[in-house]
Design brief:
The protein has about 300 residues and is an all-alpha fold. Helix content is about 75%, strand content about 0%.
């Protein structure tokens, strides 16, 4: 039986909420783990949390060990590694609120990718993109000259690169979830993301193991709440969600993330930062405004 729109949208709101509060263990985990090491542990824990789900759902052997499904999971995991990696790097350099709002910029990248695939969008979509770009400049205090020595601006840039990968991740999920079991896809994307992240950590970082036991705790908390639950629910919800509504609801992650930054890390946003955040939210909504009779995402996935 197909779930009701209310049930699907409620599920997406829960995902946005869990993503938002998930910024807390991600920031705290950076105290004892470097970025890719933290991702390796949290996505590894996330994959483990899905094993009981696969057993409970009695997934068939042929469905779990299918070359096409594994390849789909590998592609999803690779894109997820990019999004999660840049996001985690940015959390060590800039405010949680900045990372949260800039991550929401992925809904601007979706129509841009569509343009590259010969899709055309109405003027309101591009108006939304301009407003979001202006909001990003205000949020990041961008003066027109990029200084790579400015850690805050560098962190904002990493978050923006992560947003591009999140846009690709949304499109890849939308493509594969209609073809394969959503729980199997989620398991493989977490597994491959953990492996890719571990490989990058061993190559580029000082160590894969945390310098304190809290590294395990925060990666486990994030692995269960954000990876095991939220990312899996995202895959499940997108099977029945309307992309326009889904993009708007998921963008609320930025609001929840900003609240976490304020409550837990005493991050105060000034007037221009708040104005920029508001413009980004408005731009994200306008950029996904559908043309009459045309769903914006599924036309090119």
């Amino acid at each position: 039986m197909k779930p009701s729109p209310l049930a699907v949208n409620s599920l997406l709101l829960l995902v946005a909420f869990l993503w938002g509060i998930g910024f807390a263990p991600q920031r705290l985990g950076m105290e004892t783990l470097e970025a890719m090491a933290f991702n390796a542990w949290r996505f590894g824990f996330g994959a483990l949390t899905l094993i009981p789900v696969l057993l409970f759902c009695r997934i068939q052997f042929s469905e779990l060990f299918n070359a096409k499904v594994i390849l789909a999971g590998l592609v999803m995991g690779l894109v997820l590694t990019g999004g999660a990696g840049f996001q985690q790097l940015s959390l060590g350099l800039t405010k949680v609120a900045n990372v949260a709002f800039i991550t929401g910029f992925y809904v601007i990248f979706v129509p841009i990718i569509g343009l590259l695939l010969a899709h055309r969008y109405p003027l309101i979509t591009w108006l939304g993109g301009v407003l979001a770009l202006l909001g990003l400049a205000l949020l990041s205090n961008f003066s027109g000259e990029f200084n790579w020595q400015d850690e805050g601006l560098k962190g904002d840039a990493f978050a923006l690169m992560g947003a591009l990968f999140w846009a690709l991740h949304l499109l890849v999920i939308t493509y594969y979830v209609a073809r394969y079991n959503q729980f199997v896809l989620a398991f493989y994307q977490f597994l491959f993301c953990a492996l890719f992240s571990a490989g990058m950590s061993l190559t580029m970082e000082a160590q894969l193991l945390p310098t304190g036991n809290m590294g395990y705790v925060w990666s486990l908390v994030n692995g269960i709440i954000v990876v095991g639950i939220a990312y899996t629910l995202q895959v499940v919800a997108l099977k029945n969600a309307k992309p326009f509504i889904a993009a708007i609801i998921l963008s609320l992650e930025s609001v929840f993330g900003a609240c976490i930054g304020y409550w837990l890390f005493s991050e105060v946003m000034g007037f221009y930062s708040l104005l920029g955040a508001g413009l980004m939210l408005l731009g994200c909504i306008l950029s996904q405004w559908p043309e009459k009779g045309k769903p914006p995402l599924r036309e090119f996935v």
